[in-house]
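FAQ: What does the model actually see?

It sees only this:
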Amino acid sequence: MILTDREIKTYIKNRKLRIDPYNPSKQIQSSSIDLHLDNKYLKMKESNEIITLDKEIEYEEIEKDEIFIPGKSFILGTTKEYVSFPSSISTLIEGKSTIGRLGLFIQNAGFINPGFEGKLTLELFNANNLPIKIKAGKAICQLVLMENTGNIENLYKDVGTYQNQDRVAGANGVNVSNL
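And it is asked to produce this:
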């Protein structure tokens, strides 16, 4: 079952769901929560080597309030908000339609497991041929919350690679704080 605006507000009021910072009049939609772009990014360093999941990837840190993403380019960003989900909630992260209509995809791994806590890393891909300028603070994605129907054996907080991240995180948990 997808949670409505009233149910989302109740979860937040009862401290079962945490969104920080949080502005109910600007973030809560009929059945989703808007999140905003922070000003920190990671870009893969240029290399002639082939990327594999087994190899550590080197990143360049970028911190800007405005950034241009060239056409057919990819960077990692993060949400301004820190979130914390209870075991009773699974979450989908979706791009805002205005952003998508520019050709900017905000994720390719759009499921957040119950028990996750931290800032969300966004996989920003410009599918357009033209560069896209984005600004920190812009509403860039929305969370769709779903109530789980059973008990969970392995919460993300116990087994997740990206748990408690407070910055943009690269592959295998690499982030700007450990570069």
